[in-house]
Design brief:
The complex is a heterodimer.
Chain A (H helix, E strand, L loop, with lengths): L7 H7 L7 E3 L6 H9 L1 H4 L2 E5 L8 E7 L2 E7 L5 E5 L14 E3 L2 E3 L6 E3 L4 E3 L3 H4 L13 E7 L2 E5 L7 H5 L2 H8 L5 E3 L4 E5 L3 H10 L4 H4 L2 H4 L12 E5 L5 E6 L11 H7 L2 H9 E8 L3 E5 L3 E3 L2 E3 L2 E10 L2 E11 L4 H14 L5 H17 L3 H4 L3 E3 L17 E4 L5 H14 L6
Antiparallel strand pairs in A: 1-22, 2-11, 3-4, 3-6, 4-5, 5-10, 7-8, 8-9, 10-11, 12-21, 13-21, 14-15, 14-23, 15-16, 16-17, 17-20, 18-19, 20-21
Chain B lengths: L11 H23 L3 H5 L2 E12 L10 E9 L1 H12 L11 E14 L2 E16 L7 E14 L2 E11 L14
The chains are: A alpha+beta, B alpha+beta.
């Protein structure tokens, strides 16, 4: 029985049973739980903020989000990438109102305090008149998050004492090497940003653990007889590199699809095992805890040429029932321009806000979110089923690390996601 | 009003006729899309159609452009036909049941081309009200279209369209529709 003083949030957390594949509906669109996640999950985790190719030059910056706060990710004069709260320490004015730009200083539009992009307060207007006894420049410097980069992926965290990014990524690094490290990658243009009325974990689960939905949600592919190219099947592997992260790899035997001109670069950057696996990739979906996802969509034939791209996603929570989707398209920097153009056109047609596949997914997520909102589920747990693949035997001879299962139909990474999530929302153990 | 580049007085009637003709075309186009008559809409397109919509970003107004290489749409005839075929299936969940849309087209501005009598450049404003299901809240999508129209008989065909949505982050959850 619950202790009389337990809150709805405590009760919800206490009913999450990932090992049994039972997750209550109330985890998704509950406002109090969402606030609790902002204080725990988003306050502690490494959060993806930018790709290195977005801020290549000294002074380049982008403004992004971490949890419910705006941050500036800036390329310093010393070559260091830093992430700062986009808030003037003086009186909380937003320092930067642009999406991106180049500047080594940020001048607050309110009282004119000027900050260098290493965080120091450098200019205070009329300082001698306003603060004749001086001003505490150390207290008034920019609030900085801890920033680290892996394979061009820039992450930041407010947790200055927790694990390093590499420790946090754990066994997922081997797979990220293939997805974003196989070649020097660059973002094409800027991320698409669009609001989807869904709770964020529904999107996260979909990318890490749901290969099962493709045939139904994207049924138009079958109706339009496009399925020859599309993988509705279970052939491939489901991988849980470390609880919280998850991925699925669809397999083909027609060989590598990336341009021949970059194969030497790819061979040099990957281990032989990674290189061989990449050559068999038909599609590759997955995510990094909590809300970063990646996708190499199904390789398809366009005008006689096999093509696919690499998209990375952040499911940025706006509130408990809405996200701002950030969708980046990455392409191999050293590939020929015609490959890059083909990758871009294919992505626009299939994914992104106008993407024919993406449109179906967001429709589902919105409806699921609406279903899970009912107050009744806060009072009495009603369980969603995440039992697919419980007890399945692991594949022992897979070249990559983590728990690996034959076939893509498994929800082990969703169970792992909620196990990890519980560590953040109920660090003392589920109550 | 369109303007004569050599500053000769414009024949008012001819100008009115041109304006009316272009507006009729754009209004018909909006009706076809609002009524989900997508096949008929495809007939309004030139075979060489290039249909794009750059993603806009928030930048300072010091002369830097607010678009990059990333696009919401980058379509030719074949991809638009594929999108229409998808809209015609009963499993395109994004538009099944369909949105109720109401497109208002206005602020039509026409530029003639001095050396091409059968081609005009047109800018128009679009406000599209989109409502789905029983949601009491609707999406409002605003855009300027920069078009190139070529003459076809008494009417026109759309040769090129660039849609400049008046949004950075899109407030509508998908672009399953055409604009």
């Amino acid at each position: 029985m619950d202790a009389p003083a337990s809150s709805p949030v405590d009760r919800i957390i206490a009913t999450v049973r990932p090992d049994d594949g039972l997750v209550p509906m109330s985890v998704h669109a509950n406002p109090e739980l969402h606030r609790h996640e902002l204080r725990t999950v988003f306050a502690r985790s490494w959060l993806f903020v930018a790709h290195a190719s977005e801020i290549p030059e000294v002074g380049d910056f982008v403004s992004r989000e971490m949890g419910d706060r705006s941050v500036i990710v800036s390329h310093g004069k010393d070559g260091v990438i830093r992430t700062f709260l986009n808030v003037c320490p003086h009186r909380a004015m937003q320092l930067c109102g642009e999406d991106a730009g180049n500047s080594q200083v940020f001048r607050c539009p309110y009282h004119g305090f000027t900050f260098v992009n290493d965080g120091t307060l450098s200019g205070v207007p009329f300082r001698k008149d306003a603060y004749p006894d001086g001003i505490d420049r150390e207290r008034l410097q920019l609030t900085e998050a801890r920033t680290e980069t892996y394979q061009g992926l820039i992450f930041a965290t407010w947790n200055h004492t927790g694990p390093s990014l590499e420790e946090f990524l754990g066994e997922a690094r081997w797979y990220l090497d293939i997805v974003v490290g196989r070649a020097e990658m660059e973002v094409i243009g800027i991320p698409q940003k669009f609001i989807v009325p869904t709770a964020w974990k529904i999107a996260a689960e979909n990318f890490i653990a749901d290969a099962y939905h493709t045939a139904t949600v994207h049924a138009f592919l079958a109706k339009l007889k496009l399925t020859e190219s599309f993988d509705f099947g279970r052939e491939g592997f489901h991988v849980v590199p470390t609880d919280g992260h998850g991925l699925g790899i669809g397999i083909q035997q027609d060989g590598p699809w990336y341009p021949e001109s970059i194969s030497e670069e790819v061979r040099a950057r990957l281990t032989p095992e990674q290189f061989d696996l990449l050559g068999q990739v038909k599609n590759f979906h997955g995510g990094i805890y909590p809300n970063l996802a990646f996708l190499i969509p199904n390789v398809i034939e366009v005008g006689g040429r096999r093509v696919t791209g690499t998209t990375i996603r952040v499911w940025q929570p706006v509130d408990e029932q809405r996200i701002r989707v950030y969708s980046w398209l990455l392409v191999e920097r050293n590939a020929p321009q015609d490959w890059k153009d083909l990758v871009r056109r294919t992505y626009i047609l299939t994914f992104g806000a106008a993407g024919m596949l993406e449109q179906d997914d967001t429709e589902v997520w919105e409806a699921v979110t609406a279903s899970t909102r009912a107050l009744a589920y806060e009072d009495e747990p009603r369980y969603l089923d995440y039992t697919m693949g419980i007890g399945a035997e692991e594949v022992r001879d897979f070249p990559g690390p983590g728990k690996v299962f034959a076939g893509k139909f498994s929800e082990e990474s969703a169970r792992g996601f909620y196990r990890r999530w519980l560590q953040d929302v109920a660090p003392g153990g589920a109550r | 009003m369109s303007s004569d580049p050599e500053d000769r007085p414009v024949d008012v009637l001819e100008d009115l006729a041109l304006t009316r003709s272009v507006e009729r075309f754009l209004i018909l186009e909006a009706e076809l899309l609002d009524d989900a008559r997508y096949r008929e809409w495809l007939d309004l397109l030139d075979d060489r159609i290039h249909y794009t919509a750059p993603v806009r970003t928030t930048r300072r107004t010091d002369g830097r452009v607010d678009t990059t290489q990333m696009l919401w749409f980058d379509e030719n005839r074949a991809t638009l036909e594929l999108r229409v075929r998808r809209l015609e299936t009963d499993v395109n969940w994004a538009e099944e049941p369909p949105s109720r849309t109401r497109r208002i087209v206005g602020n039509v501005r026409i530029e003639r081309r001095p050396d091409e009598a059968d081609v005009v450049d047109v800018r128009s404003n679009l406000l599209c009200h989109r409502n789905r299901g029983e949601n009491p809240v609707s999406d409002l999508i605003a855009a300027e279209r920069r078009d190139v129209l070529t003459r076809r008989g008494d009417s026109w065909r759309l040769l090129k369209r660039e849609i400049r949505f008046d949004h950075g982050t899109l407030g509508t959850k998908n672009l399953a529709l055409l604009f």
